[in-house]
Task: structure prediction
Amino acid sequence: MNLNITSRIASSLIAASFVLGSSIASPAMAADAWSVTQDDSEFGFVGTQLGADFEGRFDAFNADIVFSPDDLSGSSVKVVIDIASVDTQNGDRDSQIVSPDWFDAAQWPTAKFETKSFSEVSPGTYQAVADLTIRDVTREVTLPFELAIDGDQAAAIGSVTIKRTDFGVGQGQWTDTSQVGDDVTIVITINATRS
Result:
């Protein structure tokens, strides 16, 4: 065999071995775990009653977040919300929200948001496809959100509008949406620290 050809083959094998070895030794960065700063985070919502907007929030929730813009396929978010922690600054309305006609917190004390996939829309803007469970109904929703990461700190804000009747929220006479509107906008604000 020609010496030059032999040298080229040997060089190619060495280069291939180096590339393969490097790829094995340097795996892709895994998504990071994040701890939510509860005092600076909120799961809020905006609804309508008799044609006027009202705002509310759920004060108690647990969030398990694993996320990296460089590993969207390995990222996940699961949030469990305590329905009884609702606060709309109106005691009568709050007691109605947890009642059997609405969320029925005695039978279904939590709502759940669990992501299925993430995609990048543009730098700093993403969307999450997730399963949202309210009462005994689970539906897929798409949540667009903006995210800023500065060192070990992250801030995200996003919103999605759902129809309450799709989840059975509003039974009996309350399936009529003339007094309490069908559209509810969920607004999520998250501040977190890399774990």
